[in-house]
Fold these 3 entries.
Entry 1:
Amino acid sequence: MREATRLLRTFLQASGVAEAEADALELVCAEAANNAVRYATEAGRERLVVIEALLGAGSVELRVTDHTPGFDLPLEVELPDLDAESGRGLFLIRSIMDEVDYLRGRDENVLIARRALPRLPGRAPTARELELEAELGQMTEELASAYESLSAIFRFSTALGGSERGPAWIEKWMLELCRVTGADWFQFRLADPKDLSLRIVASSAVEPAPPLTAKAGGEDLAEVRAILTRQDVWFDRRQALAEADPLLAFGRRMSGVVHPIFVGADPTGVLTLGREIEADPFSAGQVNVIHTLADFLGIEVCNARVQDENLRARVLHRELEIASSIQASLLPAVIPQQPGLALAATMAAASEMGGDFYDVIEIPGTGTLLVIADVMGKGMSAALFAAIFRSHLRSRLDLARQPEQLLTWVNRTLFADLDRVDMFITAQLALVDLPGRQVRIASAGHCPLLLAQPGGEVLEFGSEGPPLGIEAETAYLGSALPLRPGDTGILFTDGVPEMSDREGDFYGLARFKSWWGERAGGTPPGELGRALMAELDAFRTTRPARDDVAFVIFQHPA
């Protein structure tokens, strides 16, 4: 609108209108045109505001066509109160023009204002008239600039919350800010609240500068000083930039301002605008526009971060749901039972998805293979490796009669995949051989098997083999223990002895062995499993479980 009012003034003066009259008419035009922009309807923003000037013999008529909802022109216009937010523009137009009409239409409205043009030949303007003329010209300039700035802020605020985001969106509005403030170049850095690193996301520079870190000792750099002091940093010939400052890439004879952007107490970014003419600093009104637009931009950046975090949380939650479904599908739906052997198993995850796993597999003609495992980590990766481990294990049940050979083969097969992602699996296999009256076990870095005998004595069986995925060519060792009537054994994960109470103390293996010796004898496995979970819950009280708990209980009834 500023350019349009200037063109009007040029036309009037070229047509012989006195300078003072041209100033007044320009002010009326600026007021009417900016109201047309400010109050335009949604559809009206896409249409042009038309400004016309008709010169006649001793009079001029101004016409401004707008696309606003329109208003009813009052017969008399009073000067509004000082605290009123509107009404001054219409009062100004009424005061300057001799006649004002407003024609309302369906899609557009026309403001018509007429003024007589008296001629004063031969009289030179007085000093006061020249002073008033200069003041009026300055007021017209400031009004046009203010309305243009308000229009830019309005358009920016309406664009907030849209689907368009990212560096291209930020650069678009930086260019708009340069146009409104008369800046020649810009640079916008985003601040990471965690380490105060400042990386460029939009810049006028052909080759943007590398990232900065806002830390004590770096105050020589204007962008760093602005973040650390939370104040604008100005630069020009008198307040020169340091020789190491990356802003010198825009030139040495220039002026500008660096504005830090904070939302609450958190740094969001730093915005720099500059001019190539160092003797032409930004005005107070232009600085206010810079601050307003920067604050809006900071809020939008924070909103975008929150939305991104919410999206990542939803994706993670969905991933955990899928991983939980995978884990549930790996556990046997029914624990197989056979004469002379009673079984029970439990798996309780500390969160939505755990890494613990168990299996119970019948080996025809030999017995039952019991499996307990703990995949390092949580979530989808742990669930997938548990599924892979189960698949490999079940594919070579011909080796189940020698659990140590089965573990050796599984480790050799899975090593490359586990090593690639820096993961491992602890596991223990126990083949309960009823005809042979023994239990053959092999362990890969897992908790020991506890066997409670009828007299209350608890035997502990483990091995020194490392977890799966640590050494490719590990040859696991096995051992055999006799199985007598009344014996009750348990395979468990480290979530049992590492259950912690409110003070952070562990339940511990020694306490567990003592409890197992007292409770295991003669108690059915299902009842024993429920009692163990109740014992662990009572120990931790209200403290959430830090790790998953899984166990398999077997009993050779007397």
Entry 2:
Amino acid sequence: MLVYEGIKSEFINDVDLGIIADKIRNKYIEVIKRRPSAPEFNSWKNSMQYMRGVLSDNEIPNNSGIAIEYNIPPTGCRIDFMMSGYNKDKSNVIIIELKQWDKCTEVGEMDGIYKVNTFTGGGLRDVNHPSYQAMTYANLIRDYNESVQLKDINVIPCAYLHNYYFDSDDTLLSNNYKEYTDAAPLFGHNDVLKLRDFIKRYIEDGDDGNILYEIDNGRIRPSKMLQDSLTNMLKGNQEFYMIDTQKIVYEYAIKNAIDTVAHNTKNVMIVKGGPGTGKSVLAINLLVELNRRNMTCFYVTKNSAPRNVYSSKLRGEYTQTYINHLFQSSGNFIDEERNKLDCLVVDEAHRLNEKSGLFQNKGENQIKEIINAAKFSVFFIDENQKVTLKDIGSEDLIKKFAKEQGAGIYIYELDSQFRCNGSDGYLAWLDNVLEIRDTANFNIDGFDYDFKVFDDPNEMRKAIEEKNEINNKSRIVAGYCWEWPTGRTRNDSNFHEITIPEFNFGISWNLESGELFAIGENSIHEAGCIHTVQGLEFDYVGVIIGDDMRYEDGHIVTDYHKRASTDQSLRGINKIAREQGESVAQKIADNIIKNTYRTLMTRGMKGCFVYCVDKNLEKYFEYKKNNI
């Protein structure tokens, strides 16, 4: 998704006329669906003047392609500046990461992390080495853009710090980062001639922007899924490039873990992030690296679905004892002695419970027990994904127990999007539509995310089944408005618990025996619930929204009375209504029901198809999809 596109001569003319920043801003609003901040606008005015100077060379073809602010699917990352052209008939694209730094300070003992006073950040910020950032962006384009692969387009990254004067022993040029600077050369204020030569090395003939057009319109290859890459990750192979805040949080976590264990202290790290910010990928990377550094480290999650999928994927490569040891339930630390373990990495920490055990009658508090058991514990959390009354994981509660146990507290936040094809727009739109939080109320036309509303559940099922034929990575899920009976029917896909009689539609809840829902060959013919899919991801997801969420009198309304009697996620809500009043119960249930559908509707990385039992809700979604 390009914000500005043209050729060199047009770009230079726009800069000379003083309208380049205005053109970028106007297109930015149209494409990104929000107004840029004043610092962003000023950075364009500043940096584009420098790029105009670099390109003021007759040997750089006037019809070379120029693009500014390219959004990289399937992420929320944007490339500052791109050029395209040919060299001996070879198609080349140069990506240039522009920085307005004038100085920086290396953060010790961390790979390529710096503190800079940025023009756009309003103060000191932790940032990645510019060459690392450019290198990872180039790798993302190579990995996910089919045109780059099929048409053999060469992607060449570099970074240009146009306000920066390099010293002879500058930390940015240290041998520690040779891997990065070799992959993405670094240019400073005095390196205009070097940057020109670098560009001319790859662009001898112009292409009229055709190569950039191929990239912008290239089909996005299916994203890697954590469950498919787990085996290679545990073997130490790099499967995912950590970008932006992911890399920063990873480096801080490693440093904090090393310092904590070395000094025999106790520390807690809280990592906040919404759907698709890479929490689980980061958690597994930490698990691998901390174990590689000979620390006792386990991956912890309350939800059994991802643990079961991981176990299935690793079977045959590792013993079941090793797998069970590495991936632990959140209720396993009730009797663990204090500081027995070096590190615990807790994914989906918002799903933690107070009590443990089958009857929820063991232990005192899972958060407290985890902090007690490990010298260093990392909690990955998104409080908008709490989906049951028993989910007690929160930033405040983690901090409370950390303070009680004398632990230091570190808090970080992830912001780079990977799910939903990197569309921050879809996620913001969904929060707005579900009335979870106010966001810019725009439509989602133009975003590279496939959202469809169906008026017939059979048509939705057919569409999801067709997507699933590609790679078995699409699934149907439903809200918990249909009973989940016990007995022999739970192993019979021909027995349909979920029925919509007016359409002669029926489907069974995911079966209790045989294949795992997320990866089974036949589970496309079943419907999963929130507990089956939370913490996992698919290419496409089809969501059946039951009568517990409707559209009435101009607003989304939820109705916990429409939940199935077998639904355990709201067990106890009637008691709350009796003791504290219906309004209190309704407010609690409203959050849980909306969070449930928000979570279900963000499981698909490429698309979400929706069928609503309530026809008013169907019309509302269709309207909000197409109208501002």
Entry 3:
Amino acid sequence: MKSKILYILLAVVAIAIGCKKTDFSNESNGEALGGFAITAPSNNAMIVLNSATPNNKLTFTWSAAKPGVSTAPTYKFVAALKTGSIDAPIIELASDANGTSTTLTLTHKQLDDALKAKSIADGIKTDLIWAVKATNGDVTITTSPALNIAITRMGDGVSNFLLYGPVSSSTPVVINPNSTTDFLNFKWQKSFAGVAANATKYVIKFVAKGGDFSSPLFTYTSANSGLDSALAIGYKNISDKLTAAGFTDQATPVALQWTVEATSGNFKKTADYVNDLVITREVKMFLVGGDTPAGWTAESALQMIPDASNPGTFYIYVKLTAGSGGFKFLNQQQWPGGSLNAADWGMKPGSPGDAVVDGESNIETYGASGVYRITFDQKNLKYYVQADHGRMGAVGGATAAGWDPPTIFPSQALGFVNTNKFLGLVSLTSGQEWKLIDGNAWGNGSISGSRDYGKGATAGSMLEANESNFAHTGTTGLKRIIWDGTDIKNLKYSVTDGSVFLVGNATAGGWDNSASNNALPAMTYEGNGKWTVTANLTVGEFKFIVTKGSWDFDYGGSAGKISNGGANLAITTAGNYTVKIDEYNQTYTVTKN
């Protein structure tokens, strides 16, 4: 009998061990239900209901509560006053899809109506706690702990709105930091107030890119005392704001972001998007003075080239006539005291090479008349007037001098044509590379050192920084090389054949400039930019071309001066003529023999 009882006990224990308990956190005599948790919004969320956008949606989400066998749960959103208990909610709302969804979607108005039904006044912030209840009929469980949420009922409000311009871009907007007559125009979509009596007003906010708009660098109230959805901001004004915000180096681009904050009564809302805005304060610099081609007329002052490698530094290649009163630097083509807020710099008295903006002297101590490279370092208040850099020459494997700068002058030199322009006739070897340089040594990185130039990103463009060598792919022989900095923002170079022909109905070849027209009179190169030809000319007109088959580069002119694209030259009496041009001095003569 004893062994039989022991056998029965062992069987019971085995059955108990072999039955694994289902993993549910909540059970009853009926269906079980697994635990679940809230996913959004997070604890301590703050929601401000907007009377101007009553149909905007709010979403509450949570994970699913796992049913024990077959009965799927239904859910309710419950909220109570923070001072109360979640078991005594003031709001109970079934989730989406008649309570079967793990999401509750409410419009601002629906949530506002729910609070209003509990006698919470318009515009009042209410601190609540909230949770989600799940039930399958047998078991009811609640997410824990209850989360804090602050909801402000509808009162004032503003509708959503968009920024129009300036459009978001990483391309710098170039402004003149001294101009009070130029403006940057900001525009945005009008926002409508939820309470009509409280008109919407706007403030433009600026931050450094990635910054916090709650602590902007600077702000502007829009036009019409904040009521207009636009504002024109003067270049000087925005530059002064940047300086006050710590961006004192005007030569360095500033990456900003901007948005607009709309306010109606106590309600504030920013635009739907944030726009990028990069501002470059283009400090222009000009040369003026009796020793310069501009004279002392500020409106004719010569604009200097900005140094791409040294922001805040400017230079110019120019012919100076010593003894005519010297020169100064201007940041506008206007003398100080005018509407452009101009400033001028000259020599610090008794200290050549040092510049000052007040109490300055004209810069007159530099040497004899000639071509100079003048450099002004505005940031460090230094200037350089250098005859040994007032020139340009070809250097490289394509030239006879090779890559040895000390040997290129004068054999590989270009002639000075006019301010910021050189032209030279130099022999180049096909398949080799070369560059242009303004000194007899490679630059050492200093502002006063040599500058060398190479090819830019596009054909014909020229750079001093981040450049590549020029590649000569044409035929070996004499070539016309032009260094052209007359457009200070777009340095250019060109290489054409080292030849000149007469073309026109006054010549035997007529106006046919094709490569096969051997009747076009060819000029002979005499060196130093000078060409000559003797030919029979008839009554009519002619001009000079440098390459047969192309009108891209031709000389015309009048009164003894030639220019690219100039007027046709007239022959009024037929006969034998000697025609000469000087490309370096841009002159011509037509003499009847």
